[in-house]
Amino acid sequence: MRKSNLRLRRKATPKSRNSVFQPPGTISYVGEDRTGAVTTETILYNETHFSKQEGIFLDQLNEDRVNWFNVDGVHDINLLEKIGSKFHLHHLLLEDIANTTQRPKTEFYDNYIYQCIKMISYDAEHHELVEEQVSIILSQGSVITFQEKTGDVFENIRERIENSRGRIRSVKSDYLFYALIDSIIDHYFIAIEQIGDYLDQLEDEVFDDPQKDSLNKAQKNKRMLLQLRHAIFPLRESISRLLKEDNTLIDTRTHAYLQDAYDHCIQIIETVETYREINAGLRDMYLSSVSHKMNQIMKVLTIVSSIFIPMTFLAGVYGMNFEHLPELTWQHGYQYFWIVNVIIFISLIIVFKWKKWL
To answer: Is-above-0.85 flag for pTM?
Structure first.
């Protein structure tokens, strides 16, 4: 377990050494190498108005509307500083946004709330989890989201806003803040369902026909479930803080929805723990299956050996080079020899079946 944790940590912090000795609050990107262009999006809406534009238009801030600014790519430090200056974001918060190895957490400031969360999807082809850090900032009338790369799980929310489906256009920014978190949590269920299907396949494989790489697959599953556990356990604490903290940015009517998200976290945690137990049992099942398969092979070999031992004895006796050996002069001795062998074979088969060894 400890070795797996270290492996995950080393994999997740490829650039962490560059920022170890820098002063606190120094904004330095930590994460996978990103060279692509940063894409941004601005969505403004209320009950009667909706607009969507590519780019960050901070000058269009309107207190009568919900302002959603989305940034895909946190490796552009200049853009982070620009947004941070506009919204008066703390330099330590900007440092956390640029560091994509953060543990999911919630932090409260005077005029805004910071939520760090992991967006996870399942790669069915390679049987691994794809993890991406999402930072969500809630302020009065505005929500800012920072993602590592283009592509997310928020298309349904964009569609609901654009087509005015549900209540999202009639409520404030705190509901959008909840909806973004809830959308990420909902996709945890999709990933878990796919992992569960793969576990069922692996369990059938281990039970029916264990392969050489079955244990490697189980070990890979173990690390994958541990990665999912590291993402969801701190999130449960974060949502609990959102529910307990008395903050004017979150309306009391939104607490019911946050409570539902909290319940989903509990459900995911219970499912992950169940899958971890199932996966841990695959090793014992594998060893039992291999042992059972070996026993079946030894059983067949033993039966074959038992059948041919008396035949080998007869062949050995009459293969000895003695001149005066009984029955050697029989005219039909060769035929008698095979008749006796067949009788021995049939008799042993009957005895084995009677003993239920076959």
So the answer is: no
